[in-house]
Design brief:
Blueprint: E1 3-4, E2 11-14, E3 17-24, E4 29-34, E5 40-44, E6 48-50, H1 67-78, H2 88-98, H3 102-115, H4 132-151, H5 159-172, H6 180-188, H7 192-200, H8 202-209, E7 225-231, E8 236-237, E9 244-246, E10 249-255, E11 261-267, H9 273-284, H10 288-294, E12 308-311, H11 320-328, E13 332-335, H12 345-358, H13 369-372, H14 377-380, H15 385-398, H16 412-420, E14 434-435, H17 438-443, E15 448-451, E16 458-460, E17 463-465, E18 488-492, E19 499-504, E20 509-514, H18 525-537, H19 545-561, H20 567-579, H21 584-597
Parallel strand pairs: 7-12, 12-13
Antiparallel strand pairs: 1-14, 2-3, 2-6, 3-4, 4-5, 7-10, 8-9, 10-11, 15-18, 16-17, 18-19, 19-20
Helix pairs in contact: 1-3, 4-5, 5-6, 7-8, 18-19
Length: 613
């Protein structure tokens, strides 16, 4: 269990001791009952952990065809029970509508509440019985393909016609057809808007199955969170020479209900899935440790899993893994309708507030040349990216969150606290869901690759990685499929690819895997791509790992020895500095592991000093 729902009596762990949750004081402290001492204590939320910390029950990208759809279908079935779980009449109603036994509904609801993840609703036995999973997957594939090709078309085939087609396909393959209720449930789980758009056309769907198009509504904190990117109107300098390196990008998450800024991420790298994922994880997790690392003494008690994230149609928001990761934590990811910019109005208005405030900082570029006049932004620039990050954190916490918002008539922080905790006049909705396994949560939002494991380890982008934990999986074959090599999941942080993370499906855990040649320097994915382009320009098509790193050293030398660095080169240098500490903690762990496993050669004597008795 990695997500805490803060239900009265829920078992939690605080400083290696077990407690039962009692009540919330605010979004930073709760009252809990000490299970051994038998007394109530006030404990810090940021230090709370789940009772059974562990890794994922399954890696999202390693699911077999049809399994994810089954989990989502089950989640949609129990969704009405999450807020009205004690109403027995509702259980009976859903049982009749979905063709699922009441006891099964209780079981699914219990599994989901324990983890807070859709993935907990996967079929409990994934493959132990020979042929069972294969049979279920084949049927599921037939069902999904038939729904897509027959039901979700403008020909508007009836459910009975679709079921007849499924039965025919199953019999042709010698497979037992599914029950008609199974097909009916799959079709019912499809959102009405999607069904109408495919069968009736998008205009009809827009008119009949969308809510108020003028704005996004939010009934409580985290019910609607907007996320967006923008290029900030300020020139920054690098850490070493204090020379200008250019304008940074910011990715920011904004709570529509309270107008709270939930989190942000600043980088010189263009917006992508990485910046989006890092912004989401920073927004969802408690910020106490992060504020301490920044050296900022401020109150930012905003954390928790959002119900819905609204984003524009940029490709970084439409990645498969981002959608699956959000869905796994119960987060709905919705995109702004094309040509309807008012859907992002809340966050865009805040971005303008931020832009206006940046005009007072040294190095501001302003919004247009007329406004800038003869102000030399490069010459006046003074802030590094880390200093800007610290400055914006102080501004958000101590300035913006503390001012009355014209849209709510309250400060964003007051609106947040009143809605969640409540006052004498207002009953709060309660604490949001808390993610306790922060490392695993961040890992879910990192890019991944599938690779086989060979004698040398694993090869990604021409670079070799190895650790002893890979040995049992060398040359592994898929069970039951002789000769077909088994592929494994490897995740990596593009800012520093000197370490990748191996998903051990047997032990349900991630393991850091360093370079096979540990003497090689840490590099970012962008440096690797630049080196590959450099080699291509030299007409070197067949190059090895050594050639790649020689090219990287050559490019780094050009940057470091340039008499007059261009802004682009300084920005490249600054990226390298920023990315160098991504895996610092993991590298220390790997180093200690190697030292403990290596032999202490100093205790052995040379042959000529050995005495024979």
């Amino acid at each position: 269990m990695k997500i805490i729902n803060f239900k009265k009596g829920e078992i939690i762990r605080y400083k290696d001791q077990d407690f039962a949750f009692d009540s919330a004081i605010d979004t930073q402290k709760v009252v809990a009952f000490h299970l051994l001492k038998g007394n109530r204590e006030v404990i810090e939320i940021s230090e709370i952990r789940s009772l059974e910390p562990g890794s994922e029950s399954a890696e999202l990208s390693s699911l077999k065809p049809g399994e994810w759809e089954i989990a989502v279908d089950r989640f949609n079935t129990i969704k009405p029970l999450l807020s009205r779980g004690r109403e027995k009449a509702l259980y009976r109603k859903i049982s009749q509508e979905k063709g699922v036994h009441v006891a099964t509904l209780y079981q699914w609801l219990g599994r989901f509440l324990k983890t807070g993840k859709v993935i907990s609703l996967l079929p409990s036995q994934r493959g132990p019985k020979i042929g069972k999973v294969r049979l279920e997957n084949e049927v599921e594939e037939i069902i999904q393909e038939s729904i897509q090709s027959l039901y979700l078309t403008n020909q508007r085939f009836s459910m009975i016609r679709v079921y007849e087609a499924i039965v025919l396909k199953c019999r042709e393959k010698g497979i037992k057809p599914p029950h008609i209720n199974t097909v009916r449930n799959r079709i019912r789980s499809i959102p009405e808007y999607k069904k109408s758009k495919c069968r009736d056309g998008w205009r009809y769907a827009e008119q009949n199955f969308t809510e108020n198009k003028n704005s996004i509504s939010a009934d409580f904190p985290l019910s609607a969170v907007q996320i967006d990117h923008t290029l900030l109107d300020i020139i920054l300098v690098d850490d070493s020479s204090r020379m200008p390196v250019g304008r940074p990008w910011i990715t920011l998450a904004f709570d529509v209900y309270s107008r709270i800024v939930l989190g942000f991420y600043i980088s010189f790298d263009p917006p992508g899935t990485l910046s989006t994922g890092l912004c989401i994880t920073r927004s969802c997790l408690p910020k106490d440790k992060w504020l301490m690392q920044l050296g900022v003494n401020a109150n930012w008690p905003c954390w928790g899993l959002p119900v819905t994230i609204h984003a524009d149609n940029a490709k970084e928001f439409r990645g498969k893994m981002l959608k699956m990761a959000c869905k796994n934590y119960g987060i709905e990811l919705e995109w702004r309708p094309v040509a309807q910019p008012h859907w992002g109005g809340h966050i865009e208005r805040y971005m303008k507030v931020l832009a206006d405030h940046l005009k007072s900082l040294p190095g501001a570029t302003f919004s247009n040349p007329d406004e800038r006049g003869d102000y030399d932004s490069d010459k006046k620039s003074a802030l590094t990216i880390s200093e800007l990050e610290r400055y914006l954190t102080i501004f958000i916490c101590n300035n913006y969150h503390a001012k009355i918002h014209s849209g709510t008539g309250k400060t964003p922080l007051a609106a947040w606290n009143e809605a969640i905790i409540g006052t004498i006049e207002i009953t709060g909705i309660g604490l949001p869901q808390l993610v306790t396994d922060e490392e695993s949560f961040r890992m879910d939002f990192l890019p991944f690759e599938e690779r086989t494991i060979n004698e040398y380890g694993v090869r990604l982008e021409g670079i070799h990685y190895f650790a002893d934990v890979l040995r049992p999986f060398i040359n592994s074959r898929i069970p039951g499929k002789y000769g077909i090599r088994r592929k494994f999941i490897f995740r990596r942080d593009p800012r520093d690819i000197s370490i990748i993370y191996f998903w051990d499906e047997d032990n349900k855990a991630y393991h850091p895997i360093p370079y096979r040649n540990t003497a090689l320097p840490p590099i970012s994915l962008w440096e690797l791509k630049a080196a590959q382009r450099h080699l291509k320009e030299k007409s070197l098509a067949n190059y090895d790992e050594s050639t790649v790193f020689s090219a990287i050293r050559e490019l780094r030398s050009l940057v470091e020895t340039s008499v007059k660095e261009t802004r682009k080169k300084r920005r490249t240098n600054q990226r390298k500095t920023m990315h160098s500490e991504v895996h610092l903690k993991k590298k220390d762990e790997i180093s200690k592991l190697k030292e403990s496993s290596s032999d202490d050669l100093s205790k052995f004597k040379p042959f000529d000093e050995i005495e024979v008795s």
